[in-house]
Amino acid sequence: MTQAELRLCSLLLREHFGEIVEKVGNSLLRTGPRPLRLLVGDTGLLPDQVKKALCVLIQHGLVRFEAQPRGWVEYEARRERVLRILRYPRYIYTAKALYGDPGELLVEELLLHGHLPMSSAVARVADRLTETMEDGKTMDYTEVSNTFVRLADTHFIQRCPTAPEMPQSAKVPPAPALAIADKDMYVVPRLSLVGKGKRRHSCDEEEEGEHKAKRQKQEGGSSEAPPDDGIYWQVNLERFHQHFRDQALVSAVASRMDQTSSEVVRTMLRMSEVTTASGASHTQPLSSNEIFRSLPAGYNIGKQVLDQYLALLADDPLEFVGKSGDSGGGTYTVSILWAPSWAPPSPFPTSLPHIPPLLGRFGSRCARIFRLLLRKKHLEQKQVEDFAMIPAKEAKDMLYRMLSENLVALQEIPKTPDHAPSRTFYLYTVNVMAAARMLLHRCYK
């Protein structure tokens, strides 16, 4: 982990959770998995403070824990999860664009609290929406809960893993192994949430309400547990990233071909957005009849025209859409990893076309060579000189400079088994991961 990443994570933790949580998180990020005793010694905080900070980090999914065979529990920071705090505004904006104000506030509440029961999240959002409405109008719980169900159905939110039930006679482990079955991850409990959002009271009414609550507490009154007690929900960040990837893919098809082609690809992605795993290379196979039936109602294209568009997409050199089989017209899949294999998973939107501007210290000619290698994949030195129209001495010097910075790699292709230099091709190619790390390092700073 670079110093720039560590510094950025530390600043994010301090901004969102305060200095104590920052110290604990910084210690875990810097030293790796550690038990509670070593954390207390390293941070210089009281054990209770460290425990509370760990509770906060675990609730927000920024730290994971695991019981060791010898009986202690180790805590490990999730660096990539901390960095994704930077994307919270984008997640919230996306929820607003897809599901309106209730979706926006539901995602915001879940990100703010880490995880919440459905009943609590619905009540909070209904109250907040009621505050923004005109006097005399209120937000009904039913409308918010319907949006909650839609978010779960499209996998933008998911249930948190829970501890398995242990028999009373069994030995209690030092830390529970949290787990949840895939089939239960998006199942919304059937709750009859009846009510409306409430507005905040004035200061006098708040004081009166506080006295009333204290009086009820002294009289022994106890509120009932919510109907979904123990079932907590969290935001599924990977699903948002999948949505961003699909949007980028649709935009790429639109710029490459036309709007109708992008709408066909959008329909295919929408049909398989829930059934396709986040790391899959292709979507689920779909027939042209299924795609035709799922096209938007207002989109007027016939079945024959759709088949022509699918054929064009499948024949395109960039292979946005793949075709398999010919029986019944064949089935089509969207190639999710259609882009070159250099696209690294990252909390930042990275792409190598943005890297040449970062090569300012090498000069514009180096950036030209870099773009050339990025487009042609592999080139000999003489080919680099000819295609880039740069003198041989300068091209050789620039290639060596980028090679010394690990931005460019040299690949040997021998003609004979003895690897003699006179009978070996030397091809230059872009070192993708090093270039991506260079861009990420700049983003972290």
Strand-helix topology:
Elements: H1 3-17, H2 19-31, E1 34-35, H3 36-43, H4 47-59, E2 63-67, E3 73-77, H5 79-83, H6 88-113, E4 116-117, H7 118-132, H8 141-153, E5 157-159, H9 203-218, E6 232-235, H10 237-256, H11 259-271, E7 286-287, H12 288-294, H13 303-315, E8 321-324, E9 331-334, H14 364-376, H15 381-388, H16 392-404, E10 408-414, E11 424-430, H17 432-444
Antiparallel strand pairs: 1-3, 2-3, 4-6, 5-6, 7-9, 8-9, 10-11
Structural features, described:
This protein has 17 helices and 11 strands. It is mainly alpha-helical. The protein has a 3-stranded antiparallel sheet. Strand 8 and strand 9 form a beta hairpin. The protein starts with a helix and ends with a helix. About 5% of the residues have low confidence.
